[in-house]
């Protein structure tokens, strides 16, 4: 049988679940449950709560309801994540890349004239190099335009 301790371990280990304050009419209260929520990509918010009586067992029908309707996971994923051996496979991991500043994206699209999909494909270093090339090219063109012609 599964205990509330395992449910709390799952929620603490799974990506995206966060504990929310236990509030009643705007006031903080202790309460007999921890409350958790998780925003999912389709815009819904999953919610569940865990009894503070961590040693109590969760009955099979209640556990099935929690897994299917509140956590939207399988028993295998639940057991792996609650034991710390797995991660939620639906978790969205952001790549470890440095984000491109908004001003640079706008300059590359509207000033330099690059296509938006081309800008998305650039790394930060490539985007900065493209902007530098554009500025240097403008400076060279301006220098040639102001230089007097020899006769």
Task: Name the shape in a single word.
Answer: rod-shaped
Class from secondary-structure proportions: alpha+beta
The average pLDDT is 84
Strand residue percentage: 15-25%
Whole-Å distance between the termini? 96 Å
- How many alpha or pi helices? 6
Overview of this protein structure:
The chain folds into 2 domains: 81 residues, no CATH class; 45 residues, no CATH class. 46% of the residues lie in helices and 17% in strands. It is built from 6 helices and 7 strands. It has a 3-stranded antiparallel beta sheet with strand order 2-5-6. Strands 1-7 form a two-stranded antiparallel sheet. It has a two-stranded antiparallel sheet with strand order 3-4. Helix 1 packs across helix 3 and helix 4 crosses helix 6. The longest helix has 23 residues. It is rod-shaped, with a radius of gyration of 27 Å.
How would you summarize the topology of this molecule?
Elements: E1 2-3, H1 4-13, E2 18-20, E3 23-24, E4 27-28, E5 33-39, E6 45-51, E7 57-58, H2 60-71, H3 75-82, H4 102-112, H5 116-121, H6 124-146
From the structure above, extract its key features.
alpha+beta; two-stranded antiparallel sheet; three-stranded antiparallel β-sheet; 7 strands; single chain; rod-shaped; 151 residues
């Amino acid at each position: 049988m599964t205990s509330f301790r395992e449910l709390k371990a799952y929620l603490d280990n799974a990506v995206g679940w966060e504990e929310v304050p236990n509030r009643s009419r705007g006031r903080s209260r202790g309460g007999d449950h921890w409350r958790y929520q998780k925003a999912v990509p389709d815009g819904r918010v999953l919610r569940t709560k865990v009894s503070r009586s961590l040693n109590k067992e969760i009955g099979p029908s209640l556990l099935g309801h929690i897994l299917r309707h509140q956590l939207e996971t399988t028993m295998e994923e639940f057991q792996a994540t609650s034991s710390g051996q797995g991660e939620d496979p639906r978790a969205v991991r952001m790549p470890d890349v440095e984000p491109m500043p908004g001003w640079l994206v706008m300059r590359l699209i509207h000033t330099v004239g690059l296509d938006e999909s081309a800008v998305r494909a650039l790394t930060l270093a490539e985007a900065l190099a493209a902007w530098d090339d554009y500025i240097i090219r403008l400076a060279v063109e301006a220098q040639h335009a102001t230089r007097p012609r020899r006769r």
